[in-house]
TrEMBL record, chains A, B:
InterPro entries: HTH_LacI, LacI/GalR-like_sensor, Lambda_DNA-bd_dom_sf, Peripla_BP_I. GO terms for molecular function: DNA-binding transcription factor activity; transcription cis-regulatory region binding. It comes from the Bacteria. Keywords: DNA-binding, Transcription, Transcription regulation. This is Sugar-binding domain protein. The keyword DNA-binding applies. It comes from Blautia hansenii DSM 20583. Residues 14-68 form the HTH lacI-type domain. Signal peptide: none annotated.
Amino acid sequence: MEGFPEKGIKMGNMTIKDIAKKCGVGVSTVSRAMNNHPDINPKTKELIMKTIEEFNYVPNNSARNLKRIQSKAIAVLVKGIGNTFFSDIVSGLERECQKKNYSCILQHVEEQEDELDIALHIIKEKKLQGLIFLGGSFSHPKEKMEQLEVPYVLSTIRTAGENCEQYAAVSVDDFKESYKMTEYLLQLGHERIAILTAPKEDESIGKLRLMGYAQALKDKKIPVQEELIGYMDAKKDRYSFQTGYKLTKELLKKTDFTALYATSDTLAIGACRALKEAGISVPDECSVAGFDGMEAGEFYIPSITTIRQPVEKIAKATAELLFDMIKGKEVPRQLVFEGELLERESTAFSSCHESVK
Amino acid sequence: MEGFPEKGIKMGNMTIKDIAKKCGVGVSTVSRAMNNHPDINPKTKELIMKTIEEFNYVPNNSARNLKRIQSKAIAVLVKGIGNTFFSDIVSGLERECQKKNYSCILQHVEEQEDELDIALHIIKEKKLQGLIFLGGSFSHPKEKMEQLEVPYVLSTIRTAGENCEQYAAVSVDDFKESYKMTEYLLQLGHERIAILTAPKEDESIGKLRLMGYAQALKDKKIPVQEELIGYMDAKKDRYSFQTGYKLTKELLKKTDFTALYATSDTLAIGACRALKEAGISVPDECSVAGFDGMEAGEFYIPSITTIRQPVEKIAKATAELLFDMIKGKEVPRQLVFEGELLERESTAFSSCHESVK
């Protein structure tokens, strides 16, 4: 391209040479400015960056550096995208990728699909540099995990199976947080505490949360009763309003309880709806607690008592850990964040324990 | 690679030749099978596809056909990702991309960012073949729109400005649907109907929905009163629970009304919360209506009367239109889907019109 069109005119084919010429500097100076190299005069850098912006110049890396372009992509595999909790995480991850100039490919995984098969496929197809797994029960044989040839991080999931120490994971301590919530309900005087939980075969956060519930009961010498456990159906259910509604209806048919602990806020909201339809008032006749800290629970009537997961921190840490692993600066490790118990309107003292009030 | 490892052993470097050898066919037959070519014996195809699956073979297109890999990506630019309505659309779009073997890059646009600037940037950076715009007010000068060098579709948004006929768009008729909802509230006997709507400067669906509301009132000879309109703040607000809560609180301070029409379900849920805190019962003392048909509104207490947008159809049609435009089979056009008014618990006859009951 010869000469410079006036400002405002379409500039599709501006090259780095044109920018250098315009600024009266060499190409390498422009390159240093763009790559945040410290060895450059700040004023020169400012001029270059302003010129780049003014002419809408985008470095055509693909032509001169194919490898870099190909590799600047990661994928987020989301199982259970219907769970709005994940959309908060996804938007956080996406923002972090943007900062680092990585493409973030969002890949939906159906409930009955194997996320690892999909991962193996798209890593090759899309030449990915890294992967983030979000949602799903995530229990895969070690041999299969080893086929993943790029770094990956489990975000807000954790496998309860063996070898879990080998995988990079960022999450809360699901066992501990679940114990905390159950203990809180026990302190309110509830003894018949129903739980809505993952399918029986789950080896992930669902199992950990159920274990936390069971441990808290045991520590209070209260036996865990199978009839109070509403398991999801592995084939049909997921952490959704609809599932919470359905499982609560089923529990109400066969037993009674003064509190219900739903292991996600979506399940809790569905449960409240089922209780309302059964003429049971929340929290007067039955307390309901959730997990996650979704915004919807805050505005629900009654607002939902929950364990808030620090979504922004988890998303940021997940992306940073992955990028550091991609650069070889970090090995897989487990980062655990603290959840926060938020007491809201959906829980109250058990009416069987009026004296406690 | 020589020979074939046994099944189950890691097969990272399987080539199309290996698959052909394994199946006792030529390479072109394998290619026909993979590309769904009609000219192939069904049994042979089955054998090939089974073998491909068994050995986890992924065609290494990037090596032999760089152009194709580079071009198999589109981006979805989402403004207002906090709006959970969009996560349903995104997951629908993502599924359609998967079917067509396109990468779907999710790009978040901050409320104060210009989606067109971002679009111009990433089209070049990521060598995109197409774009989908989701959310935002979307009013840009024609000259700037023309800089977009790839096909694009506006999904669930529509510009109310001039030249709108030039852009491909898939949505409901926001004016008509909004008219429908307002008319429904009028039929319930409400005359003082407040509305929560987009910022005054909006030129997109917000304006269209406000116009539908105003027209329905005018057709009933009811003057539109500025004091009943809760405008978002363009700098701070978005279609969220929090905004609905805030705007309703503000309206309650300065006026009264028997119905409130929130132009999204998220706004409606926030509004219900503010009304509850003000001691106003929904729907007995104030009806609340939303827009979108989000699942959260169905499980809310009270469940939210709304206009359901056919999310799955819109997502599918958006993706199909875009892919057809990419292939040159289709020119930009506007597809309009019918919304559905869902009467739920949050609306009732105006108590000022007992006789109507």
